Every structure is written in structure tokens, then in C-alpha cells.
Amino acid sequence: MSSDPIILYDIPSKAPGCAWSPNTWKVRYAFNYKGLAYKTVWIEYPDIADLCKKIGAEPTMIRQNGEPYYSLPVIEDPKTGAVISDSARIAEYLDATYPDTPKVVPEGTHVLQKTFMAAYDNATGPLISYIMPAIAKILRPKSEEYFVRTREASFKKKLTDMWPTGEEHEKAWKEVEAGFGKVDRWLNEPMNAGKPFVMGDVVSFADFMIGGELIWCRCGFGEESDLWKDMMKWHGGRWAKLIDSLKKYEGPLEDMAD
After folding, report:
1. Which residues does the UniProt record annotate as the domain GST N-terminal (predicted)?
2. pTM (2 d.p.)
3. Which of 144, 169, 176, 182 pairs with 162 at a CA distance of 20 to 30 A?
4. Which residue from 126, 138, 129, 139 is spatially nearest to 160, judged by alpha carbons?
5. Which residues fall within 8 angstroms of residue 146, CB to CB, at 6 or more apart?
6. CA–CA gap between residue 208 and residue 249 (Å, rounded)
7. pLDDT confidence of residue 184
């Protein structure tokens, strides 16, 4: 059996520490929480599909037109030969393959975790008009061109036109805050009030999802931006406290060597 670390395929950026994707951050958190050795291999956006086909990674989804859609994260485990795509499937694989490490999806919570993640995505949907243009600016040139072209085709508008300005910004940003407020209310239900994580005092994959999206915003907006500082004040500082609680699971940040 190989003693080489698990490979995590991730998308590079110009942001400090390089890692920015909320989906790959879920897996980074999981690796560090479980104490598993891994190394990052950086893959630019246009090269993802060819990589996945080469190493035998399954597509993340099948588009309506029948074409496979490949995305990261993908891991390759030299100990077992497994190649796994999609952050949720990766988490389940790590729990099953390394049972002596802390579980990121506690027993019996698989469906509840996935349901929470879907509800969270729906609640925080208004963030998209801000984060898409912001992320385009931190990508390296090869990925930036691909990201802008494909996202503009998907949203049917220029990314630069998505960012709300003037009075529209004030209204749109309040909608983002309200979306996070909905999540805050869920987490403040009486049985969970005052506790830091989705499952109370127990860290789980759902927390890694929220933490990954917060890092997404921190990288996209910039740590010194008014938007990021504002988010960190929302809801009694809940999101600042969460990302601080998860900091020990961020692991070493790795800038990409050119």
C-alpha cells in the first residue's frame, strides 16, 4: 500500500494562499479535521475536464443536453487507487476509508446534512450577484478568461453588469444579509442557541460548507473590504466566530509556484 499523501485537485488564484473555491475548501477542512496527509495539485479551469477524463473521475453532473460536467474538487488516493469527485462524496469516502479519524458526516446525518446544504444555498442565493464578479478578478489569466466566458453564457449578462451599484447596491446587500439572517435563525433555535456549529458543539461537513463560502467571500472581496468587514459584524458576529472556530482546520496555505 502506498504511503504517498492523497492528492487534492484544486483551482489556483492570485489570492493569498491560493485556495479560494468553497467546494474545494469543504474538502480541505475535512482533511485537516481528520488529520489526513494530502497535497494539492493546481489545475486551471480549462484543464479540469481533460484531467478528470485522464484519471477516471466521474462527472459532477450531467447537463440537460446530456453532456457531462466536470468540476473540482477531485481527490486521488494512492493508498486505495480511488478517484472521487464531488465534495459530499469525497467526505463520505474519507469517513468510510479512514474510520479511525473523526467523522465529518456523523452517523445517521447524511440526508440531514445534504438537506441543510441545499437550504443554505437557497437562502444565501442573493450573494451571487456580488461574488461572481469578485471571483473573476482573483483568478489567474487562463482561468479568468474561461470563468468569465462560461459564467456570462450561463447568466446571460456581463459579470461586470451583475454587481449592484448605487441604490440598487443598498437594497441588494440587505438581501444578502437577510439570507444569512435566515440561516442564523435556524442555528439559534432553542436546542442550539449559543452553540457554535450546525450540530451544536459538534463540527460537521455542514460547518465546512459555510466556512468554505465565507473564505470564498474573504478571497473575493478582500479582507480589508467594506463588504467583508460588514459580513463579519452580522448577526452578533456569528460568521466571524464560526470562521475563527474553523481556523485550526484551514491547514497550511499554499501559494502556487509558477
Report:
1. 11-102
2. 0.94
3. 182
4. 129
5. 44, 45, 46
6. 9
7. 96
Read off the pLDDT of residues 241-253 as tens digits, 9 standing for 90 and up.
Answer: 999 999 999 988 7
> Beta strands 6-10 and 74-77: pairing type?
antiparallel
Q: What is the mean pLDDT of residues 217-234?
A: 97
3 confidence band (pLDDT: 50, 70, 90): confident
Domains along the chain? 6-97 (3.40.30.10), 110-249 (1.20.1050.10)
**What is the CA angle 48-51-57, rounded to 5?**
95
Burial environment of residue 62 by CB neighbours within 10 A (0 to 12, 13 to 18, 19 or more): exposed
Given a cut of 60, is residue 10 above it in pLDDT?
Answer: yes
Residues 188-213 as b/e (b if ≥16 CB within 10 A, e otherwise) read eeeeeeeebbbbeeebbbbbbbbbbb
201-206: average pLDDT: 96
